[in-house]
Amino acid sequence: MKLRALSFSVVGLVASSFALVAIGQEPPAKARKVTKTDAEWRKQLTPQQYAVPRQADTEPAGTGKYVHNKAKGIYECICCGTSLFSSRTEFESGTGWPSFYAPYNQANIDTATDYKLGYARTEVMCNTCGAHLGHVFNDGPAPTGLRFCMNSAALNFVKDEPAPTAKDKAAKDKAAKKETPSKDAPPAATPK
Length: 192
Ligand SMILES: [Zn+2]
Hints:
Metal Binding Protein, Guanine Nucleotide Exchange Factor, Chain A, 6-stranded antiparallel beta sheet, alpha+beta
């Protein structure tokens, strides 16, 4: 009887360790609109641009090229060009990473729970290609209270075009008129 109880507990132990292994496994990757092989990503990106978005690495604090970027524009995914953040929601967090209180469009990002540091954090990814961008925390400023803590290496900043002046517009209209074919032009010959 004692032996039987022991064998049951061994079975229980084995079963629970299998369960732990299963929990520790990465969930199956989500289907993304943009997918490339590892070799293709390596070819397209610099070693750091590959390590951060494709291998969920984190650039050292204060080293990213956009930490103190004050220009107006849009931050796109370095991998696939999806618009991820706008300078309009950027703020100085003092963390050493570019920080935003909201994404450019909620539908353009995806999140997952990450236990890499031994506690739960919310990982932020590009929804189009699955690129790891950084994490989101609940200690951000109003109006959302969120802090999207991003890696510069996962982003490509595209500066806003200055608004066209009236003179630019007139020149553009003139150019467009020139390109329009004249009504007097003979019709194209049709084969009989
Ligand atoms: Zn992407």
